[in-house]
Amino acid sequence: xxxxxxxxxxxxxxxxxxxxxxxxxxxxxxxxxxxxxxxxxxxxxxxxxxxxxxxxxxxxxxxxxxxxxxxxxxxxxxxxxxxxxxxxxxxxxxxxxxxxxxxxxxxxxxxxxxxxxxxxxxxxxxxxxxxxxxxxxxxxxxxxxxxxxxxxxxxxxxxxxxxxxxxxxxxxxxxxxxxxxxxxxxxxxxxxxxxxxxxxxxxxxxxxxxxxxxxxxxxxxxxxxxxxxxxxxxxxxxxxxxxxxxxxxxxxxxxxxxxxxxxxxxxxxxxxxxxxxxxxxxxxxxxxxxxxxxxxxxxxxxxxxxxxxxxxxxxxxxxxxxxxxxxxxxxxxxxxxxxxxxxxxxxxxxxxxxxxxxxxxxxxxxxxxxxxxxxxxxxxxxxxxxxxxxxxxxxxxxxxxxxxxxxxxxxxxxxxxxxxxxxxxxxxxxxxxxxxxxxxxx
Length: 442
Fold this sequence. Notes:
Structural class: mainly beta
Strand order of the largest sheet: 4-5-6-7
Low-confidence stretches: 80-95, 272-314
């Protein structure tokens, strides 16, 4: 079910159900100083540094009623990195990057929601609780793995990022959570000395986990790289936006296609003080991180980076990307969301991007209402909002193979399609991207 939830002001949230008959959004006010939220088909989880609240969602009208509340545990305390024999001999072998989360500065922890369970970080473990906060299972992390710090759920998969920049994935189907993949490194050895991790996101089949962050001492300026952990490789992938003066702010996977990724980018900010230069020299051994809103089938509009900075580049774009273990992270194209009046990015569900933009909705026999979510088609899907699942999959395969550079595989993917609208859409996309080799064969 497509059920985006957005924080529109301090303590104010809107929830809209996009499947089925359109209906007015559900509205909720909370006294919590939110550090995170998560939503499933039937429940909404809100939490701050001291308290968590679980609300039941009424499918008929999107209304929300408080079902339970419980105290938030204190965040995990950073552990000292173990010293290798080389370190004791006076050498400087790299023992990895240490990360923490900003919510720890406020005394909070990371939480996620799946079915009737709440997952939360604690000292040396992830606790699996019922909706009343009672612990029913514990997932233990040893010293070599580090403290569990950031969580994200998608479908039946839970991803955990630790203070050693390691990723573990658990499968949640069944009575208990079970190890699925990892631990493996999010960051390549030597690629970064310290990183402030904002958020992590796991894809729909638990094979890819992405993260965005900023450099310590940079005044909140986003790192221009998108970091991805591949469970199939058990290792890291990376995409660097610095060549086009951009930086990733929010990254979200498609709800159903494990390869498809949409990334909200902003202008690359360059720190004017010497702080950012010193942080990139490798002098910082640990990084404090900025807190994240944790949502499985939703996302909260990201705030802009702050601090003394100068701006390069242009308006906010959404980068449409693919990520696989075989091909790495690939860019398809950018879509400018400011040009259509959108103020934020909420998610991706082929054939559409979900954007934060107000619009009036009219339904026959009912009064009009204001919606905060607008859907726009992904590249190659213009005019195909009602395409069936097989057509959507064929077009996604076509776009993926084009991004990889396998032209013959791309045309084989759509060879069986007979819709004139589909072929017009592909031709339009090929011309737009100056792919005359593709347009000539359509």
